[in-house]
């Protein structure tokens, strides 16, 4: 049916087990030219006679390196060889932060997927990426959610899902795969720019940990983040279940009498759900802590928080939008 490498079998097994890529789906695949995305595209190509997907590639040029145009030419040549249509996006402005680049990529991914009726956006994130994300979040001071594994799939819009079908692959595996099938890896010199904190993690810290502390560091991180993901999913489900019971049927309010009986972990999640659901506002951890103190102390006077007013009566904790008066 398809090439018989162990990674082909591994890929086939996971997309079948999790039903990630149903037959005849329209796929939009992010293609950087690196070893992980090369592996993903070759696997899709080899399995496509069986699944009959409609595959479209997309390449982003951030202009972070002097040879980015040469890399783009190689990406186009690779797409032409496999007969896949490809879209090319060049950054209109110099994006000098990882976060700015990420937002730009995701905006264009979603827009192009909707425009072309693609139901799945595929990213070539691996278990190695997951371990780097775990470390990065840990150093920034993360919650339990930040230690959870990257999701295999998540819904971006009603019609578009984001899929990461290589999450149980490791970078040493994709490196082997590219060598085996003579795939032309383009070495991204920006990966060695240590201004980007992730590059320093990848090139210095992780090899140091593997050499002196835990040679199977990536596998251990993958196991840890997977276990944490189970716990955070359970907490989120419990918070959603209780949230539906606590909310007011007419006003933007929560029954704080019942709310105060809950564990702090559930309280935190319910308040996040409450604000996102009603006001499209995602409060930070300090704002959540301040609101919990406000509720526990049963403060009767209104309190301002950003553009919102918090008020309590005998039963309900209300949130209103502050109206600005113009003279």
Automatic annotation (TrEMBL):
Transmembrane parts of this sequence: none
One Pfam family matching this protein: ATP_bind_3
SUPFAM superfamilies (alphabetical): Adenine nucleotide alpha hydrolases-like (SSF52402), MesJ substrate recognition domain-like (SSF82829)
Protein EC: 6.3.4.19
One Gene Ontology molecular-function label: ATP binding
Domain annotation tRNA(Ile)-lysidine/2-thiocytidine synthase N-terminal: ranges: 27-204
Domain of life per record: Eukaryota
Reactions this protein catalyses: cytidine(34) in tRNA(Ile2) + L-lysine + ATP = lysidine(34) in tRNA(Ile2) + AMP + diphosphate + H(+)
Gene Ontology biological process terms from the UniProt entry: tRNA modification
Keyword Plastid attached: yes
Key words, A-Z: ATP-binding, Chloroplast, Ligase, Nucleotide-binding, Plastid, tRNA processing
Binding site for ATP: 32-37
Keyword Ion transport: no
Cross-referenced NCBIfam families: lysidine_TilS_N (TIGR02432)
Family: Belongs to the tRNA(Ile)-lysidine synthase family.
UniProt note: domains: The N-terminal region contains the highly conserved SGGXDS motif, predicted to be a P-loop motif involved in ATP binding.
Known function: Ligates lysine onto the cytidine present at position 34 of the AUA codon-specific tRNA(Ile) that contains the anticodon CAU, in an ATP-dependent manner. Cytidine is converted to lysidine, thus changing the amino acid specificity of the tRNA from methionine to isoleucine.
HAMAP family (UniProt xref): tRNA_Ile_lys_synt
Name of the molecule in the record: tRNA(Ile)-lysidine synthase
């Amino acid at each position: 049916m398809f090439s018989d490498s162990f990674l082909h079998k591994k890929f086939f097994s996971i997309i079948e087990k999790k039903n990630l890529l149903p037959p005849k789906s329209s796929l939009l695949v992010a293609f950087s030219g690196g070893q992980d995305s090369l592996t993903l595209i070759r696997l899709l190509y080899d399995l496509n006679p069986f699944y009959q997907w409609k595959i479209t590639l997309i390449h982003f040029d951030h202009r972070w390196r002097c040879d980015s145009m040469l890399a783009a030419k190689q990406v186009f040549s690779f797409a032409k060889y496999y007969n896949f249509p490809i879209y090319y996006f060049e950054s209109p402005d110099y994006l000098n932060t990882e976060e700015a680049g990420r937002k730009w990529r995701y905006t264009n991914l979603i827009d192009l997927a909707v425009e072309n009726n693609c139901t799945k956006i595929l990213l070539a994130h691996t278990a190695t990426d997951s371990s780097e994300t775990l470390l990065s979040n840990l150093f920034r001071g993360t919650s339990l959610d930040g230690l959870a594994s990257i999701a295999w799939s998540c819904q971006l819009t009603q019609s578009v899902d984001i899929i990461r079908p290589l999450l149980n692959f490791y970078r040493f595996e994709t490196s082997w795969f590219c060598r085996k099938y003579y795939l032309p890896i383009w070495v991204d010199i920006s990966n060695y720019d240590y201004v980007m904190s992730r590059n320093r993690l990848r090139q210095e810290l992780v090899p140091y940990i593997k050499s002196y502390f835990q040679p199977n560091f990536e596998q251990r991180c993958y196991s840890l983040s997977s276990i944490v993901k189970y716990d955070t999913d359970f907490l989120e489900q419990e918070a959603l279940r209780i949230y539906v019971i606590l909310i007011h049927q007419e006003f933007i309010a929560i029954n704080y009498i019942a709310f105060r009986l809950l564990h702090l972990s559930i309280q935190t999640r319910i308040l996040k759900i409450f604000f996102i659901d009603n006001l499209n506002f995602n409060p930070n951890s300090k704002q959540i802590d301040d609101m919990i103190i406000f509720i526990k102390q049963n403060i009767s006077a209104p309190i301002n928080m950003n553009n919102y007013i918090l008020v309590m009566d005998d039963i309900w904790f209300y949130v209103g939008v502050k109206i600005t008066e113009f003279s």
